[in-house]
Design goal:
eight-stranded mixed beta sheet, about 325 residues, Rossmann fold, alpha/beta, 14 strands, six-stranded antiparallel beta sheet, 2 domains
């Protein structure tokens, strides 16, 4: 049965049976289960990667369904965490591999545990600070990761092989300043995220199948609206790069913290509860103060114009403001100190 399942990719000579055998023993982490991450996760799972861990801090909304390929209206109606919703759908597609889900925010404290044993990290995130954190860990641990980004009709992909190619910080020494286009402000086309995610997944599969020499040492950029695809050879590593050159890792050490204001979301993430939240007790406490909806993973509380989604670990996403002070005040008022 397994031989037949993967027969179409093993018949591709550069991949072959040895590539499939390597995949079965390999481990991948998908960081972010949005438009790009759902493509990564679906392709890696269907290809037969032995162990996949899905990480995401957010929940499914109806506005996701236009481009986030794994989710359904029911997932959005139930406000399921993206990582868990993705896991449930992928288990139905391939029950022979191990698929885990963590509803959490990647940070310097948990990255080591979450990434332990991974052969490749695939980037489906939406902010530079998290990518800097991923880069710090991957450079220090000599682990390959595949960067990708998509907004509007434009996207790019860059494989990062520590010790071989320039790292992310060689190319982007600091996060860009000023307002940047986001999916919220500039929109994004579903075909674009499928293309960018597929290009990332292909490079990840090369790494996982033991075909590292086949990984592109280039940046691939695409503009699907104009129909342009371009490949640019990566430059040499920067010997003065703080990460791969000087071996300093401020993001990993927590000196540079990930912001709580969520990119393009009119929302702020708060995590003040060290020991988590009893969602059942919180639901009882909030009853009568607004609309309350709860599942086993999270509680959603709506009091116009704000919407608060609280997870069991105490983390909350507050929609309706980008002001951190306002968000903290709401968190303290409704969730507690």
């Amino acid at each position: 049965m397994q031989q037949e399942r993967y027969s179409r990719q093993t018949r591709f000579a550069p991949f072959g049976e040895d590539g499939q055998a390597a995949l079965a023993k390999a481990s991948a982490v998908v960081v972010g289960c949005g438009a790009l991450g759902t493509v990564h996760a679906g392709l890696l799972a269907r290809a037969g990667v032995g162990r996949i861990l899905l990480l995401d801090r957010d929940y499914v909304e109806h506005s996701n369904l236009q481009r986030q390929m794994l989710y359904t209206e029911r997932d959005a109606d139930e406000a399921l965490p993206k990582a868990e919703a993705a896991r449930r759908h992928l288990v139905e597609a391939n029950s022979s591999i191990t698929i885990g889900a963590q509803v959490t925010d990647l940070n310097p404290e948990n990255i080591g545990e979450l990434f332990e044993g991974a052969d490749v990290i695939v980037d489906g995130t939406d902010n530079f600070e998290t990518r800097m954190l991923i880069n710090d860990w991957c450079v220090r641990e000599n682990t390959a990761w595949i960067y990708g980004a998509a907004v509007g009709s434009y996207g790019l992909v860059m494989p990062i092989l520590p010790g071989d190619t320039p790292c992310f910080r060689c190319m982007f020494p600091e996060p860009p300043g000023g307002a940047q286009p986001t999916c919220e402000t500039a929109g994004v086309l579903g075909p674009l995220t499928s293309v960018v995610g597929s290009l990332q997944a292909m490079e990840a599969l090369k790494v996982l199948a033991g075909k590292r020499d086949a990984v592109r040492r280039s940046i691939i950029t695409v503009d699907l609206w104009d129909g342009r695809i371009r490949e640019t050879k990566l430059p040499a590593k920067d010997p003065a790069c703080p990460a791969c050159g000087l071996r300093t890792f401020p993001y990993l050490e927590g000196a540079r913290r990930i912001p709580v204001s969520l990119c393009g979301r009119n929302a702020v993430q708060i995590h003040d509860k060290a020991r988590g939240v009893d969602l059942e007790q919180l639901a009882q406490r909030l009853a009568g103060l607004g609309t309350v909806r709860k599942n086993e993973f999270a509680l959603r509380f709506i009091q116009d114009p704000y919407e608060i989604t609280v997870f069991a670990d105490g983390r909350a996403i507050l929609k309706g403001t980008t002001d951190v002070a306002v968000a903290r005040s709401l968190y303290s008022r409704f969730v507690g100190n």
